[in-house]
UniProtKB/TrEMBL annotation:
Residues 1-47 form the F-box domain. Coiled coil: none annotated. InterPro entries: F-box-like_dom_sf, F-box_dom. This is F-box domain-containing protein. Keywords: Membrane, Transmembrane, Transmembrane helix.
Amino acid sequence: MDLPTELHLHIASFLPYPDALAMKHTCRHFYGLVYTGVHLKVDWFVARFERKLECPMEKCSFRTDEAFCNKRIRDIMERRRRHLECSQSSGGCLVIEGSTCQKDHVPIWLKKRGRLEKLRSFGYEVFIYGLIFLVVNVLWKVVAR
């Protein structure tokens, strides 16, 4: 927030629609500053169409972000966020343009919808109990020898 508003505006002008929407919802300062209007939404659709990615062909409302982000748009943004549309080739990342996608750092079984949230919902207790069980099991094997 130490940067001048003009610099924030300039940086935000380079963002595609999903990133601009995410930036817009980070704080009140950016909510009133970041543009996510019709032109940005149409540019995002055109870029997706040129890359032969899924584009919803049903009627979309471009009036507000809330009306625009129907279930299909939210699903597309979620797949984009999880790098599921990226190719493994050099420069194939669609989220960070120009870089090679590192999506294989997160196991595919964890990327499927809801699994990461389900794992987080258990909390850290399961992780801690698992570590305790592992340590006790290793100590038991060492002592039993």
